[in-house]
Amino acid sequence: MRFLYNIVIGIYGVLISFASLFNHKAGLFCKGRKGLLERIAGEISHSKPIIWFHCSSVGEFEQARPLIEWYRENRKEYSILLTFFSPSGYEMRKNYPLADWIYYLPMDTSRNARRFLDTVSPAKAIFIKYEFWYNYLTQLKKKGIETYIVSAIFRKDQVFFKPYGGLFKKMLKSFTALFVQDDLSLQLLKEIGITSNVAICGDTRFDRVNQITAASKEFPAISKFSGNSFTILAGSTWPPDEEILAASVKNFSKVKLVIAPHEIHKEHISKIMEIFKGYNVVKFSDCGEIDDAALQQANVLLIDCMGILSSIYRYGSFAYIGGGFGVGIHNILEAATYGIPVAFGPKYQKFKEARDLVARQGATSVRSQEEFYSLLDKLVKNRNVAEERGKICFNYVQENLGATKKIISIIENISF
What is the pTM of this model? Predict the structure, then answer.
């Protein structure tokens, strides 16, 4: 099985190299890893012991961030190394000021794992949520390095729990401790003999979104645009989401829409402008060039920049989170923490917070434009319903704070 795993990693490397010829993200993936191990060896300093945080992408980084910030504030004797698997994570956070070094993760080959860990020699390694890399975990265990996974969540359909999942079960035994989100994850791990090193600590994203709310920035242009209108804040949208929004919002003359797409490259922005043809659309980048009256008369504000979504949910009466008609929804907690109801497409089952909020009726999953229209009509006509569902979302976030302290208390053996 180990041989097959390494073969698959090798094939993936070949395929991504080929894809880099015509795919921008694949190109960044390959370019960022060219000469990477040599660059790491030339830049890493061992003047302090190193804590290594590894995230897949942006969402996982947000889960790591409360822990990184705690270590930076309270354990200044450590240096912090941050790695990403995906280009979207690395490109967005490559200048994050609280990490001493930020790199892509070299591909998980035996040779790369040995070279990377021989060079970095971290005192602790902290992986986030879904990051399971056999060769890295094997080398970490072999070297006796404390290794943790944070905010992990497990489902019965994952490979760990299949008859052929022996190699992946072995990965789980490499961790010093697994910090899981819920009791179901704990029970599933018990069924395969992983018991002594598991703790239910919750999800650090709750702590992170609470931090964001407390420090959220103001955007006067968005405030002027939304005014006192019922405002939909649509975040991380994809074309199927945008088509549903465009087909529905036109039926509500007093409803305003702020839409922050997941991709903001020129082609996607042009496509959104085409989808919303007939609307009065203003781009956020143009807000400084138009007067307040024109901004207030617009009914769609298109956010054509990155990095502000988590702060601008504050201007929404209702949030629509994209991705649910694709591979899965994006972060709903960034909206829920502001106390507004949330909606998303049908593919949300992998996300505990989405399942929980649907069960509590703070969030709604819609399967079609008709279902979204019906929900919007209900919320617009009865603001009390929107407020009640928003309170459910806010209370849910508040009830789940504290994962960071639980995790730190175990890793560092301290009490808060």
Answer: 0.88
